[in-house]
């Protein structure tokens, strides 16, 4: 707890580092800095050039409350309520999965095709299944001004978060939310379908790190008994909704490449590409319609 005396930036940063180190937090210095900066409205430069800057009690109390939450396992970006993703600053809510760098691999993998569709047709229609914060769709829209996207989620809370993010980023005019359980309320055909679905085995959730297990929405994690339920649902109906020249990109767990590929091939789709994340793990699979005459990648 904070004492009753004057508090400086250096006091708070040092106390946070010590608290988090004792609690076994992975990066005590970074987490302390992020929380202090957010709740005091200061910058890293302030901490370097003015470490003895006084922090008013109101703001110091907010920092201490955030420190306690982090010590109890809550992820720092959930405490802050925002997370960077592919150069975007996104709102994170209790209804959404916290976007992570691994998912940027899906954005990077699909961008060349999105741009190719725009080159051919002057537009690209993107369907983001299980949109959550809107991270994947909004990252693609931010890079390709001619593209439009529909973000699908069965959680109204998640959709509200995605809509706010779209508005904050100036992308609301090209982003449409839809409450739907996968394809249930979707219509039309799409040039690109993307998804980061839940893919953790039900019996594996209890063994996840506390900051994931206890703070991420369970529906965004639980992929059923073998972790593959969502892929089966997506693959089963994707041929109805993907343009003959379109592409479907999905994020996968590190050990799911063979199983997910088999599911999509059995649904009549063709493997079109794959990508590994920065850790060298299989992370993205891309599929195409098996209909004749589809364009190359």
Automatic annotation (TrEMBL):
<keyword id="KW-0808">Transferase</keyword>
<dbReference type="InterPro" id="IPR019874">
    <property type="entry name" value="RF_methyltr_PrmC"/>
</dbReference>
<keyword id="KW-0949">S-adenosyl-L-methionine</keyword>
<comment type="similarity">
    <text>Belongs to the protein N5-glutamine methyltransferase family. PrmC subfamily.</text>
</comment>
<dbReference type="InterPro" id="IPR050320">
    <property type="entry name" value="N5-glutamine_MTase"/>
</dbReference>
<dbReference type="InterPro" id="IPR029063">
    <property type="entry name" value="SAM-dependent_MTases_sf"/>
</dbReference>
<dbReference type="InterPro" id="IPR007848">
    <property type="entry name" value="Small_mtfrase_dom"/>
</dbReference>
<feature type="binding site">
    <location>
        <begin position="130"/>
        <end position="134"/>
    </location>
    <ligand>
        <name>S-adenosyl-L-methionine</name>
    </ligand>
</feature>
<feature type="binding site">
    <location>
        <begin position="196"/>
        <end position="199"/>
    </location>
    <ligand>
        <name>substrate</name>
    </ligand>
</feature>
<feature type="binding site">
    <location>
        <position position="182"/>
    </location>
    <ligand>
        <name>S-adenosyl-L-methionine</name>
    </ligand>
</feature>
<dbReference type="GO" id="GO:0102559">
    <property type="term" value="F:peptide chain release factor N(5)-glutamine methyltransferase activity"/>
</dbReference>
<feature type="domain" description="Release factor glutamine methyltransferase N-terminal">
    <location>
        <begin position="11"/>
        <end position="81"/>
    </location>
</feature>
<feature type="binding site">
    <location>
        <position position="153"/>
    </location>
    <ligand>
        <name>S-adenosyl-L-methionine</name>
    </ligand>
</feature>
<dbReference type="GO" id="GO:0032259">
    <property type="term" value="P:methylation"/>
</dbReference>
<keyword id="KW-0489">Methyltransferase</keyword>
<dbReference type="InterPro" id="IPR002052">
    <property type="entry name" value="DNA_methylase_N6_adenine_CS"/>
</dbReference>
<dbReference type="Pfam" id="PF05175">
    <property type="entry name" value="MTS"/>
</dbReference>
<dbReference type="Pfam" id="PF17827">
    <property type="entry name" value="PrmC_N"/>
</dbReference>
<dbReference type="InterPro" id="IPR040758">
    <property type="entry name" value="PrmC_N"/>
</dbReference>
<comment type="function">
    <text>Methylates the class 1 translation termination release factors RF1/PrfA and RF2/PrfB on the glutamine residue of the universally conserved GGQ motif.</text>
</comment>
<dbReference type="InterPro" id="IPR004556">
    <property type="entry name" value="HemK-like"/>
</dbReference>
<protein>
    <recommendedName>
        <fullName>Release factor glutamine methyltransferase</fullName>
        <ecNumber>2.1.1.297</ecNumber>
    </recommendedName>
</protein>
<feature type="binding site">
    <location>
        <position position="196"/>
    </location>
    <ligand>
        <name>S-adenosyl-L-methionine</name>
    </ligand>
</feature>
<feature type="domain" description="Methyltransferase small">
    <location>
        <begin position="120"/>
        <end position="200"/>
    </location>
</feature>
<dbReference type="GO" id="GO:0003676">
    <property type="term" value="F:nucleic acid binding"/>
</dbReference>
């Amino acid at each position: 707890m904070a004492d009753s005396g004057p508090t400086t930036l250096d006091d708070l940063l040092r106390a946070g580092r010590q608290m988090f180190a004792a609690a076994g937090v992975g990066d005590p210095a970074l987490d302390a800095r992020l929380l202090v900066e957010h709740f005091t409205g200061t910058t890293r430069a302030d901490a370097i050039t003015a470490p003895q800057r006084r922090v008013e009690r109101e703001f110091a109390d907010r920092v201490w409350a955030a420190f306690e939450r982090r010590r109890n396992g809550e992820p720092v970006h959930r405490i802050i309520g925002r997370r960077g993703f592919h150069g975007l600053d996104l709102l994170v809510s209790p209804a959404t999965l916290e976007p992570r760098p691994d998912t940027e691999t899906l954005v990077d993998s699909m961008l060349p095709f999105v741009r190719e569709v725009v080159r051919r047709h002057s537009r690209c229609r993107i369907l983001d299944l299980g949109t959550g914060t809107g991270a994947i769709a909004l990252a693609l829209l931010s890079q390709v001004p001619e593209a439009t996207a529909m973000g699908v989620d069965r959680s109204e809370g998640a959709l509200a978060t995605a809509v706010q993010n779209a508005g904050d980023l100036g992308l609301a005019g090209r982003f449409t939310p839809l409450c739907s359980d996968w394809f249930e309320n979707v219509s039309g055909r799409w040039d690109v379908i993307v998804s980061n679905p839940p893919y953790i085995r039900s019996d594996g959730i209890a063994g996840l790190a506390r900051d994931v297990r206890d703070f991420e929405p369970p529906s965004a994690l639980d992929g059923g008994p073998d972790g593959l339920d969502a892929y089966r649902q997506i693959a089963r109906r994707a041929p109805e909704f993907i343009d003959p020249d379109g592409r479907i990109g999905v994020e996968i767990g590190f050990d799911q490449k063979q199983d997910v590929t088999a599911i999509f091939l059995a649904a009549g789709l063709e493997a079109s590409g794959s990508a590994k994340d920065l850790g060298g793990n299989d992370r993205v699979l891309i599929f195409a319609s098996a209909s004749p005459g589809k364009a190359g990648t």
